[in-house]
Amino acid sequence: MAEKVAFVTGGAQGIGEAISKRLAKDGFAVAVVDLNVDKAGEVAQAIKDNGGEAIAIKLDVSDREAFSAAVDEVAEKLGSFDVIVNNAGLGPTTPIDTITPELFDKVMHINVAGTMWGVQAATRKFRELGKKGKIINAASQAGVVGNPNLMLYSSTKFAIRGLTQVAARDLAAEGITANAYAPGIVKTPMMLDIAHQVGKNAGKDDEWGMSTFSKDIALGRLSEPEDVAAAVAFLAGPDSNYITGQTIIVDGGMQFH
Ligand SMILES: NC(=O)C1=CN([C@@H]2O[C@H](COP(=O)(O)OP(=O)(O)OC[C@H]3O[C@@H](n4cnc5c(N)ncnc54)[C@H](O)[C@@H]3O)[C@@H](O)[C@H]2O)C=CC1
Ligand SMILES: CC(=O)C(C)=O
C-alpha cells in the first residue's frame, strides 16, 4: 500500500483528473471522487494501469453526510488519509440579470459548501488519525479579481479563498495546513463551456469567447490541466510544509500581486 493517501474531488475530468494522475505518479494512493463515478473509474483504472494505486468513489460534494462517509470509506479502503483536494466545482456563465435564487443556491452549495464539508470531514479524519494533513482548495484567478460575466462563480471563488485562510488559522496549532490554488484559463470542459457561452451572448464564436479571457496571459498560451496539477503536487508534498493560508496563482502571468 502507498504510504500517503489523497482524496481528490472532481477527479473524473479536467484539472481534477490531472491532479489525480500527478499525485499517483508522486506516490500517493488516490481516491478519485466525483458525481460521475463511471468517468472517475476510468481515471482510477488509468492510474492502476500505470502501476499506481487508486479507487473511484461516487460523491455529490454538496451532501455533507455523504462527504463524511466518503472520507471514512477512503481511509478504511486505502489505509490512511493525508491530503484532500477540494477541486469539484461548477462554472456557470452568468451575466448579472441571469442569476436566480435557485442557481445561486445550487452553485453556492456545490462550490462553497462542498469545499467547507471537505474541510470539515478531512479535519475530523486528520484528528482521528493524528495526522498533520494538508487541505488544498480550488480557487480561481476569478476569485482574486472579479471577472466579467462570472459574478456568481467569482463570488464562490472569493469565498473559497476566505474559508481557506480561516481553516489555516484554526488548524495551524495542530500542524494541519490549508492552501488554495488559483488556476488561470485552463483547457477543460468547464472553460470551453464558458468561452462558448460568452461568445454566444456577444453574437460571436467560441474562439472570440476564449480570447476575452486569454488575451492577458503573459506566457502567451492557455494553461494545460497539468500546469495546475504541478502546483497542487507541490502543495501536497513536504516542500510546502511551511506554507499555509495562501492562494497560489497558476495563471501564466494574467495577474501580478
Ligand atoms: N478550467 C479553468 O479554466 C479553471 C477551473 N478552475 C476550477 O478548477 C476546478 C476544476 O475545474 P475544471 O476541471 O475546469 O472543471 P470541469 O467542469 O471540467 O470538471 C469538474 C468535475 O467536477 C465534477 N463535479 C461537479 N459537480 C460535482 C459535485 N457536486 N460533486 C462531485 N463532483 C462534481 C464534475 O463531474 C467534473 O468531473 C473547479 O473548481 C474550477 O472552478 C479554476 C480556474 C480556472
Ligand atoms: C473558469 C475560471 O475559473 C476562470 C475563467 O478563471
UniProtKB/TrEMBL annotation:
Pfam families: adh_short. This is diacetyl reductase [(S)-acetoin forming]. It catalyses: (S)-acetoin + NAD(+) = diacetyl + NADH + H(+). One of its GO terms (molecular function) is diacetyl reductase ((S)-acetoin forming) (NAD+) activity. InterPro entries: 23BDH, NAD(P)-bd_dom_sf, Sc_DH/Rdtase_CS, SDR_fam. It is an enzyme of class 1 (oxidoreductase). It comes from the Bacteria. Keywords: NAD, Oxidoreductase. Belongs to the short-chain dehydrogenases/reductases (SDR) family. Gene3D superfamilies: NAD(P)-binding Rossmann-like Domain (3.40.50.720). The active site is at Y153. Its EC number is 1.1.1.304. GO terms for biological process: acetoin catabolic process. NAD(+) binds at residues 13-15, 34, 60-61, 87, 153, 157, 183-188.
